[in-house]
Amino acid sequence: MTRPTQQLSRKQLITLIHVAKRELKLDEETYRMALVTGGGHASCADMTDAGLKRALAHFRSRGFVARSGRSGDDRRQANDPQSRKIRSLWLQLHAVSAVRNSSEAALGAFVKRMTGIDTLNWLNTEQASRVIEELKAWLHRTSGVSDGQG
């Protein structure tokens, strides 16, 4: 884990915020809104150190967990088209507040409840299709939003 937030330099805080953006897989617009919500400005450069700490706390409340180095359990994310679609739908659900935690770990827990499989890497085509269809139905029920692919 990292040092307590109070002991981090400005540069370290900004680096952690950028890592949180990547780990939470936030698009630019969602990232900027999160910065405003957490730190009061749409740019880290415009924030005070206190604002940066608040922004980092906001990302942590949304599921970001800072790690030191790579752990032995750190696996590469599945990057096939079905896995990317699953992540896209998951983030859309998060954007409409149907999912509180947009992290990969939360998505993995959802996939495991549905399929009994721990990670997207191990889903076969049929299982991934089932997850996609369930997420699409959930998104439709929640917001009436289409996934853009009919």
Word description of this protein:
With 150 residues, the protein is mainly alpha-helical. It is 57% helix and 0% strand. The protein has helices at residues 10-23, 28-39, 49-61, 81-95, 104-115, 125-143. The longest helix has 19 residues, at 125-143. It is elongated, with a radius of gyration of 17 Å. The N and C termini lie far apart (43 Å). The relative contact order is 0.12. Residues 70-74 have low confidence and may be disordered.
Question: Which structural traits does this protein have?
Answer:
6 helices; mainly alpha; elongated; 150 residues
Structural class of the secondary structure composition? mainly alpha
Work out the helicity level: 55-70%
Radius of gyration from CA coordinates: 17 Å
Number of helices: 6
Mean pLDDT: 85
End-to-end C-alpha gap: 43 Å
Question: Low-confidence parts, pLDDT < 50 over ≥5 residues?
Answer: 70-74
Q: In percent, how much strand structure appears in the residues?
A: under 5%
Largest pleated sheet: none
Topology pattern, helix = H, strand = E: HHHHHH
Number of strands: 0
Specify the overall morphology: elongated
